[in-house]
Hints:
The protein contains 6 helices and 7 strands.
Amino acid sequence: MSKERLQLRAVEPSDAAVIWDIEDDNTQWIVNGMMAPISMHMITEYALNYDADPYRTGQLRLVARFAVDDAEEPEVVVGLADLYDISARNHTAFVGIYVRSEYRGRGYGAEMLRQLEKYARNILNIRTVVAKVAAVNSRSGRLFVKAGYEKAGEIKQWICLPEGSSDLTLYQKCLNI
């Protein structure tokens, strides 16, 4: 699989199982703000009723996938790319990238981010995006820095962990430059 074949697409009802698998990754709950498991029923309802109008909903979730030629499964889902807290007035949004564990470390997160930024800039006219990254998630921090994001701030002891607390780092990128 090459990064060039990676595509972002809208959420489909058939994505419910894979989204549930991603949302059920309890190793990520602390750094993404989840407090409890989410049910398959809730994910199925979300996928069935997904509203892809980012200005009405304030968010956009895209599935990162590869089309696979001559395979039993027609595509492989690599992860999810999100824009949330989208402000039409200020032309801003927060960005989130999730790469499934078996695809991490291969550059897919950077490609997902590149494509999401292009869409945000060219289609949604978003001029600034910000990522919220737990300081303990150094891999994610490196992804955003490598993609041209600048550290815009740090909130001390924002995230409670079993072993103490973690700071929250904000990374910002202006897309209209």
